[in-house]
Known about the structure:
Elements: E1 5-8, E2 13-16, H1 26-30, H2 50-57, E3 65-68, H3 70-78, E4 82-85, E5 91-94, E6 97-100, E7 106-109, E8 113-115, H4 130-134
Antiparallel strand pairs: 1-2, 2-3, 4-5, 5-8, 6-7
Amino acid sequence: MEKIREYTNGDVTIQWKPGLCIHSEKCWRGLSEVFKPKEKPWIQPEGVDSKRIVEQVGQCPSGALSMKDEAHEKENKDQSIKIEALKNGPLMVHSDCVITKPDGTTEVRQNRVTFCRCGHSANKPFCDGTHKKEGFEG
């Protein structure tokens, strides 16, 4: 398992993956107030503007430095999507959806959408109710 170290200023959290680091020196040359290779710990984000940290971490060429997006993780955790397999019917997704079709076109459905499970819909990937006529069980 890859080792990941985290350093925070209470607002943002920097993640460092030592195994990916190519020692380009962009981090400490660009923001020496945070990245101090001769000190332990070498990343000290306290007291530095979070926006500056995020911008500097974004310049890491190897991906060894990244930002832990706690707000995004919490938002995603709180927004679970309910998918319901209806008895002898379609899959119902209870959420806003952007559907990309095989030809590359997209379609937006809001609140919920039903997807064909029986394979007989004339409006794939969406359900058109054909499962009833076909006697689909599942």
